[in-house]
Design goal:
Elements (H helix, E strand, L loop, with lengths): L1 E9 L8 H16 L3 E7 L7 E4 L2 E4 L8 E10 L2 H8 L7 E7 L9
Length: 112
Amino acid sequence: MAQYAVLIYERVPAEELPKEIMDRHIGLPDRIAELGGKVTAGLALQPNETATAVRGDLVTDGPFVETKEVLAGVYLLEARDLDHALACAKLTPIVEGGVEVRPLVDFQVVPD
């Protein structure tokens, strides 16, 4: 199966998300499995204020670009194809925002 990153963008801070939305996030891997996909990893991100941006030699605190939606998390998804990945990603609970689905390029980590 192909691998995809599903980037979760949300306007509502994590601490303000309704309990039912958080519960749906927890149950997301099971709902995706019902469609024949598989979540292989998932990560929530700390708030934008904790970010440090690096652009060349410039290092700055906070996000590089002001946006209304912030990157709140990411999960890795195995799906048959892009259409299947999009169907699975649509199950992601969002209050105000959306998701972005990107195909991943395979690479191997070479041991030291």
